[in-house]
Write a structure and sequence with these properties.
nucleotide-binding, ATP-binding, ATP binding, Rossmann fold, alpha/beta, transport
């Protein structure tokens, strides 16, 4: 594990399914997430991005290799996941609507994140309001239901739910993929501000290189379940070493240097 790494993935192998249906999804995957950094994970659909996220979260098991969090192994053959990691690592899913209970108010959902066994909104209202304000939603959101919000607002609620436990690491899995460009920009601005205010550490999973360029310090590129290339985001995007990364960069509108503010070609 690197000296400054909060989370380290080393030589990770993940196979999903059983028997004849088994398929190896990740092979020899390694990456470091330094404390206070935002690391991008990019690749086309089916490259293994979400599988890595779910393995970090303990949803999938690793057949070989290891994941270390704060110096302790939390995933790998024979490992016992550390209970405290359940709160210290939080997932923001791709589809916040399906992850938010439509029968619960936003306040109830966030209170449950604080104390799953005794989700008492009255006891946690101040913390809930503070979490919502941190993502630019006011206290009127507390007593409303998920269907009353736009897609971008629901994503803010999902981010607030992740933040309210004061995690060490957030895993953001394609959280802008269902949003229009202007709403994507708002969410990225929010993440940049949260990083400045809270020292946010994040694994940011996306297929959008423009977002990586704007948000991420480092990036790893997945191809067929293997890391094709990794390094500082500015370096990888400006001078990609692998053919696959060059193809990805070339496919971005405007080519290298494209950002959300760039005019469409």
């Amino acid at each position: 594990m690197s000296i400054d790494a909060l989370l380290t993935v080393r030589d990770l192998h993940v196979t999903l399914g059983h028997g004849a249906r088994a398929a190896t999804v990740l092979t020899d995957v390694s990456l470091d997430i330094p404390k206070g950094a935002i690391v991008g994970l990019v690749g086309e659909s089916g490259s293994g991005k979400s599988t890595l996220a779910k393995t970090i979260m303990g949803i999938h098991r690793a057949q070989a290799g290891a994941i270390e969090f704060q110096g302790e192994t939390i995933a790998g053959p024979g490992s016992r996941p550390r209970r405290s990691a359940n709160r210290a690592i939080q997932l923001v899913p791709q589809d916040p609507y399906s992850s938010l209970d439509p029968r619960r108010t936003v306040g109830q959902t966030l209170a449950e994140a604080i104390d799953p066994r005794r989700a008492r909104l009255a006891a946690h209202r101040d913390a809930v309001v503070a979490a919502l304000e941190a993502v630019a939603l006011d206290d009127t959101a507390v007593d409303r239901y998920p269907h009353e919000f736009s897609g971008g607002q629901r994503q803010r609620i999902a981010i607030a739910r992740a933040l309210i436990t004061e995690p060490e690491l957030i895993v953001a899995d394609e959280i802008t993929s269902a949003l229009d460009v202007s709403t994507q920009a708002e969410i990225i601005d929010l993440l940049i501000r949260l990083r400045e205010d809270k020292g946010l550490t994040m694994l940011f999973i996306t297929h959008n290189l423009a977002l990586v360029e704007r948000l991420c310090d480092q990036v790893a590129v997945l191809l067929h379940g293997r890391v094709a290339e990794s390094g500082p985001a500015s370096q990888v995007l400006a001078s990609p070493a692998s053919d696959y990364t060059r193809q990805l960069v070339a496919s971005v509108p405007g080519g290298p240097g494209f950002t959300l503010e760039s005019p469409a070609p």
